[in-house]
Structure formats: C-alpha cells, structure tokens
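WARN no homologs supplied; continuing
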Amino acid sequence: MTTSATGSGDWLAVVLGLLRADAPGRVMGAPEDWPRWAVLLPHVLAATGHFEPDPGLREQPGRPETSWLLDRAATYLQVHARLSEALPLAERALAIDEAAYGPDHPTVGIRLSDLATIWQDLGQLERARPLAERALAIDEAAYGPGHPDVGTDLNNLATIWKDLGQLERARPLAERALAIAEAAYGPGHPEVGIRLNNLALIWKDLGQPEQARPLAEQALAIAEAAYGPDHPTVGIRLNNLALIWQDLGQPEQARPLAERALAIGEAAYGPDHPTVGVLRRNLAILMPSGSGASPAGNPLPAEQQGGQRGEEGADGGV
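OK structure emitted
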C-alpha cells in the first residue's frame, strides 16, 4: 500500500498529520513528554511504515509528517538506549528529506545532525563526524556563521572531536558555539547551559579542572533554574561537576553531588539504563575506601543537540 494509491494517500496523510499534532517535538531532556511517546510509538511506527515516497509527486501528502515522526521516534529510542532501533528510523528520515528537498536543504541538515548523534552514541565516531560536518556546512551556507542553528552544529561536532580525543580541535568549536548561544539567547538560557557544560568537559579532559569548574557550576545553576532540582539534565550536570571536584582533589565536595545525580538518574531512567550505570560507578569511585588514590570517574556524554531546530527548539541531553 502506498500513499499514491487511489484513496490510500488521503487517509494515511490524515493519520500522519494527527500523529504529528499529538507527538511532542521535544524529546531530549524532556522526561515529561516520554510517557506520551511511549504510547504513540507503536502507532507512529505502523503509520510511517505504510508511507512510500513517490518521486513523481513534488508535494506528496504525508511526506513531511513521516520524516518528522521518524526523526522524533528515533530520538525517543536513542534517549532510552535503544540505539539499534533508532538508527534505521533516522536513516529513513534523512533519505526521505534528501529525496524531497535535495542534499543542501536546512531540513536535511537537521536529519544529518540527528543521525550523527546516534552514530556517536553507538561509538561509531568516524561515521558520525562527516554527517555532523555536512550539517554544519549546510547551515552556515543557509544562515551565515553566527546563526543559532550553526551554534548547535558546532556544539555537536565539538562533542564528536572530544570523543575522538582531539581536544584541541574540539575546544575552538565549543567556544564558538558558546559565544553564538550567549549572543542569541543571553547568559542564563538553557542553550547556554549546554554549551558551558560541554566546554567544561573539554577543559576537564585537557587536564585543566580549574578552568572547567566555574563553567560547570554555571551550567548547573542554569539547569536548576530552568528545569527544577530533579530534572535529568540537572543530574548530568551534577555528575560532571562532581568529577571536576574529584580532579581537583576534593572528593568530599564531589560525593554529595554524585549521590544526588544518581538519585535523579534512577528516578528519570530506571535502574537499568546505561546512564544510571555510569552514575552508580562514579559514586562508587568517590566512596571512601582507604586504598589511596581513586581511579578517574566517567563524565556522562557531552550534551548533544538535535531535532526541531527552528521548529520547536533544540534539546540537549544524554
């Protein structure tokens, strides 16, 4: 069954439109919207599974809804560590939009960026990097070098270079992303908090925890003011600040932050999520053992951004 078959396209386009209207656009860092996505996901997968692009139709009913739903469903699965399920949805969303708009359209840039974050979470950094670089090139050409969407692309590419261990490549991108966010949104905006957190992690990895600490503290304060004390983004920031205090040789400052981060993570994700495993291991490292120097803990992944840039706001999260 295809959307170009007589009659079938009409009802499918209506269903896809209703699903898009109901599905929350924010997924990363939006736990309040996850229960609705859990309900809608099987219906989204069923409806989008019926859609087949028709290259003979320039404006095919249901096409933009399908790619949007696939992209958002992929991000929901990504947040819940179901990466092997997320990947083909993100790839299909990209293919639909490339066929519809051509290779250099800003919507294609969004899909490239989101697919790159999934490959990054899968540990396939050399697959992620060219996608993120292409997204950056598309948005710079479309919007200019100081646009907020360009800042998002810079942020994401910086996190990939960081994960590749190329910190001197990552740092100027992260600094530029922070400057763009501060100019666009002001100093206390959640977007600025994402950039501060990621730049702090780069300084930490460069062996400069004293440079990292004030950035991480500011990122935490922004998240608490924006989301409240129990949001998973706050948990991420607490964990990362705890590890910076550990690097500064202050485990007594680090431990209560790590304890709070674990409690938030368990409440948000459940006990078996990979993020909670990282938080639990980090707290164990910080507990007194009497065995001398403690091993280094693991920061949570730098906060990627993706989805609905220019539509419903970028979301940072695990």
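Confidence is low (pLDDT under 50) at residues 1-6, 308-318.
OK
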